[in-house]
Amino acid sequence: MGTRLQAAPELDLVIFGGTGDLAMRKLLPALIRLQHDGLLPARLRVIGVAREPLDRDAFRALAQQRVAACLGAAFDVAAWDRFAALLDYACVDATDAASYEGLASMLLAAPERERVFYLSTAPRLFATICEQLAQRGLNTERSRVVLEKPLGHDLASSQAINDAVGGFFGEQQIYRIDHYLGKEPVQNLLALRFGNALFEPLWRRESVRDVQITVAEELGVESRGDFYDQVGAMRDMVQNHLLQLLCIVAMEPPASISADAVRDEKLKILRALRPIAGADVGLKTVRGQYRAGAAGGKPVPGYLDEERIPPGSTTETFVALRAEIDTWRWAGVPFFLRTGKRMPQRVAEIVVNFRSVPHSIFGQTADSLNPNRMVIRMQPEEKVELHLLAKQPGDVMHLQPVHLNLDFAETFRSRRLDAYERLLMDVMRGNLTLFVRRDEQEAAWRWVEPIMDAWKASTERPKAYTAGTWGPASSSALLGRDGLAWHEEI
Ligand code: NAP
């Protein structure tokens, strides 16, 4: 996907927060797999940056230990040794200008190399880091900067981050990560929609009854209670991942797969989302918080009894909402979004429910026949299923649902890239298609903010749900009012 298929052979990938959880659990393992597949730039250098005083060997040893622990049986010493040869380290305190000296001299010693600065630190450091890089002339035209979520906690703070980073890097140099866009089934949805003539005539209000997007986690807040309590499910999941998925389902065909053609279309969808404010918030949104229940067959505490959660917190661990897109294509089609912690299983899926046949010739009423459905699964497995009705073998004409499984693992035997592999490769190649543009991000904040404001102003607590269930009863009622049900309830 994209225009440039090869990264520049000479590239420095600088990971701020290079000793952190994200770097060790996701970024380094992704780079090892890319190297195994021959997908890294020929002369790549990966420079970890953090405050911990380490030299190159100590960083390599620390990284080996952490990556091995994370990969378990998949850790391959020979592959590690090949990869470790690319690793270097610079000790920098992002807030201390003098400490950039070592990093600057490493980079300036090879001025011809392209540079990618991956900011895997708290976002409050983004502005300082970019300013310091600029002061030392490291933000050349051939440099890029990668921003991890969370990009702010509301519109104003996200604008402040964007202004600060934008002061030193042009928009075409800024790669805002939404790792859901890096998932293979999401790109396959683009391929299915725009590579086949079959779906386009059906992909509209006349044929689609509703769309459901679910990202459910089995885990609770684990040890990150203090962080999560400041954020909640709306900011952590809906504002970014779920709205991006909605855009991929709903956008008009872009004129090409180029970054701005795709992002222009996604932006139009975000701007066409009907605002939910005032009394509508109570009708069209559900916020929940888990109470004690079970996960993986074991009892687990409720949110308020988790570590580092302030007493009486009203932070939501579950959101369901009914969105509508005011365009000719989608007028009147509800898009139900749902995300939560402590759900029965870890699932990420998009379900497109088509309308029933207008008249059944088979004796059963049209409504009693299962309508066609497309299920795009991102987790736990990656697949796309088309649910159809077929005749059950035998002498009577009895219809039963069958699933046409577009099993990519089966069809394409080659290994599929995970999201961070895909996105790291795209950053190194300079392909922005799967990254979020500033105006998209801000349009998403504009839509979710009035909902969060209404929740904040309300005296009602989030609805309680038992850990290990699919959320509060009002989540089912949200669809029930349209005579519908969530996919797993059907
Ligand atoms: P983390 O484990 O706490 O790591 C933070 C990293 O930043 C460490 O390497 C730390 O090393 C470094 N650091 C902190 N303050 C610094 C400073 N002043 N100057 C230079 N380096 C500094 O955090 P993380 O989980 O990796 O997450 C990093 C960012 O990515 C966060 O914003 C997080 O929200 C986001 N994110 C994380 C994940 C994930 O799965 N972990 C997923 C999506 C987004 P020193 O303490 O030695 O400086």
UniProtKB/TrEMBL annotation:
Binding locations of NADP(+): R51, K149
Every Glucose-6-phosphate dehydrogenase C-terminal domain range: 190-487
GO cellular component terms attached to this protein's record: cytosol
E.C. no: 1.1.1.49
Active site: H241 (proton acceptor)
GO-annotated biological processes: glucose metabolic process; pentose-phosphate shunt, oxidative branch
Molecular-function annotations in GO: glucose-6-phosphate dehydrogenase activity; NADP binding
Recorded superkingdom: Bacteria
Residues that coordinate or bind substrate: H179, K183, E217, D236, K341
Every Glucose-6-phosphate dehydrogenase NAD-binding domain range: 14-188
Chemical reaction(s) catalysed: D-glucose 6-phosphate + NADP(+) = 6-phospho-D-glucono-1,5-lactone + NADPH + H(+)
Cited Gene3D superfamilies: Dihydrodipicolinate Reductase, domain 2, NAD(P)-binding Rossmann-like Domain
Alphabetized InterPro entries for the sequence: G6P_DH, G6P_DH_AS, G6P_DH_C, G6P_DH_NAD-bd, NAD(P)-bd_dom_sf
UniProt pathway annotation: Carbohydrate degradation; pentose phosphate pathway; D-ribulose 5-phosphate from D-glucose 6-phosphate (oxidative stage): step 1/3
Transmembrane segments: none
Keywords from the named record: Carbohydrate metabolism, Glucose metabolism, NADP, Oxidoreductase
PROSITE patterns assigned: G6P_DEHYDROGENASE
Function: Catalyzes the oxidation of glucose 6-phosphate to 6-phosphogluconolactone.
Family the entry assigns: Belongs to the glucose-6-phosphate dehydrogenase family.
Protein name (Swiss-Prot/TrEMBL): Glucose-6-phosphate 1-dehydrogenase
Organism: Aquabacterium olei
